[in-house]
Amino acid sequence: MDASISDHVALLLPSDVYGDSKKTRSFWRWWNQLSRFQRSLIYMFVIAVLFTILYFLPGNSENVVVDVEKPEANTIKKDVLSNIRNDPRDVENDFNEIENENQVLEEPGDVQIDDINNSKHVLARPNIGVQFPEPLGERQEAVVEAFKHAWKGYKRFAWGHDHLKPISETYHDWFGLGLTLVDSLDTMYLMGLKKEFLEAKDWVENHLHFDKNRDVNLFEVTIRVLGGLLSIFHLSGDKMFLNKALDLGDRLLPCFETPSGIPYSDINLFSSKAHAPKWSPDSSTSEVTTIQLEFKDLSRSTGIPKYEEAVSKVAHHVHTLEKKDGLVPIFINANSGQFRMHSTITLGARGDSYYEYLLKQWIQTGKTVDYLKDDYIEGISGVQKHLAERTVPNSYLFIGELLVGGKDFKPKMDHLTCYLPGTLVLGVHHGMPDSHMKLAEELLATCYQTYVQQPTFLAPEITYFNIHGENSNDMYVKTNDAHNLLRPEFIESLWYMYQITKNTTYQEWGWNIFQAFEKYTKVVNGYTSIGNVRNTANVRPKDLMESFFLSETLKYLYLLFSNNPKLLDIDKYVVNSEAHPLPIYSS
Ligand SMILES: *[C@@H]1O[C@H](CO)[C@@H](O)[C@H](O)[C@H]1NC(C)=O
Ligand SMILES: *[C@@H]1O[C@H](CO)[C@@H](O)[C@H](O)[C@H]1NC(C)=O
């Protein structure tokens, strides 16, 4: 069709119309012999041809769409993109600033955008406290390459799904919310991966829908999806992300409609039916206390108070419950609002981030809510008193668990617990007692040992410790606990520790572990969890790349290897439990 039209044009215009005078005369003779109907047909044809040419002319804004397959299409069409987006401080502009200025972005001050659509409260702070240094150091380059490798596999085999299965070359859906994609947005933004970011943004805008007739876990969706959307809204200033977050927040809110206000753990996003987990009448303590940063930020960002009210009520209720020297049991009932008697006390699974979010909520709200700080300090004292123990023979300090409501001590530590040194040192930075620093340093060294002592240089999910001198090993691993899910907690702690002490040893430790990930978890189409950290000959790949590998592990490694302390400023952002930075407010 295109070709035949242009053939006609070529025949008619150059030689016949603009030929010599003889030809011109014969043209007019021929023209006058035509009937009116024939002339009209020719007029219409010429007009149609002209329109067609205009339409296909490059640079015509109505015809250009952002082409995900061709990166150059995204870079050259700034004018076009700003027509499509109506927000002047859009992502494209930010990325152009990255390209042009190549240095510290000046702080634009709080930008009051009129509304989400029309209400008066949206607060976006694009790029405040975020700096994009160039050129990247060699180690940062290596982490960016790792991210790109992971992303390539995800894009090819799992695009828009929750998780990549890199070995079977397919995907796994847990909630069906594109978890890996949403979790990766701010990582790509910080790494300056513009092309990848714009593709992902396009998917969120056009394909991320929450009207799913499917049960999801309130906590997981809050820290990953709500946190991810709010974080990238603040970093980029793009309101589309806030609108998505608002829709999700509204769908999650019915979880809180319980007799006590303590939320149920699960909810159907379509029917809004909330309920306790299938396997238990209770919610997990850490889950109901690790949603506050995100819902508070949703309220602050939109000016709609109900989200913050719901989660503050939960936090305050938990504050009023009786604890063991500040330590909490891991289960709580949404109907009675009481802890389950005799449940375990741990800083691992189901307990961990209760303590983390006490400190972080206090920081997020400008250190104005005293009970959060008090409960945090009491909790850490409880840890020092009841849970911190030392190994034989090398006297490594670790955090164990209390069973049966605090009666039996179990010398077992989840890798999850290795988030604690980071939280402790963040607290010290904000004025917490010096004894917390000592605890942080010692615990960090033990966590490092859980890596060093494995032949793969990768830590297992759970480590047991020798406290009675049964043999000469400080720590051991049970067969069922020998897996490594590419978890971030230790790297997270290294980043905080390096931020605050500037001791480059922590960068070295992170680099050693990154090498181990490269060696034992990298596969052709991404990275995979492994089943056995104790056997270099067969690590038993598990064929799953969790979203937190891209959201957290690689982000923290990238931040750890940066020598620019303001790359992500911990005095302006508080980072949620899934490594999504959210702004610190003054109250
Ligand atoms: C704002 O507009 C978007 C799209 O135009 C819509 O999806 C969203 O629900 C609106 N938000 C509010 C709060 O009205
Ligand atoms: C840096 O940290 C390591 C590990 O904690 C420690 O052994 C070393 O003494 C520290 N270096 C300095 C200069 O503080």
Automatic annotation (TrEMBL):
GO cellular component: endoplasmic reticulum membrane
Pfam families in UniProt: Glyco_hydro_47
Keywords, alphabetical: Calcium, Disulfide bond, Endoplasmic reticulum, Glycosidase, Hydrolase, Membrane, Metal-binding, Signal-anchor, Transmembrane, Transmembrane helix
Subcellular location: Endoplasmic reticulum membrane
Active site: 220 (proton donor), 352, 461 (proton donor), 489
EC assignment: 3.2.1.-
Top EC group: hydrolase
Alphabetical GO biological process terms: carbohydrate metabolic process; proteasomal protein catabolic process; response to endoplasmic reticulum stress
Record membrane topology: Single-pass type II membrane protein
Keyword Transmembrane: yes
Reported cofactor(s): Ca(2+)
Binding site for Ca(2+): 577
Entry annotated with the keyword Membrane: yes
Family, as annotated: Belongs to the glycosyl hydrolase 47 family.
UniProt cross-references to PANTHER family, sorted A to Z: ENDOPLASMIC RETICULUM MANNOSYL-OLIGOSACCHARIDE 1,2-ALPHA-MANNOSIDASE, MANNOSYL-OLIGOSACCHARIDE ALPHA-1,2-MANNOSIDASE-RELATED
General function of this protein: Involved in glycoprotein quality control targeting of misfolded glycoproteins for degradation. It primarily trims a single alpha-1,2-linked mannose residue from Man(9)GlcNAc(2) to produce Man(8)GlcNAc(2), but at high enzyme concentrations, as found in the ER quality control compartment (ERQC), it further trims the carbohydrates to Man(5-6)GlcNAc(2).
The protein's name: alpha-1,2-Mannosidase
Organism: Aquatica leii
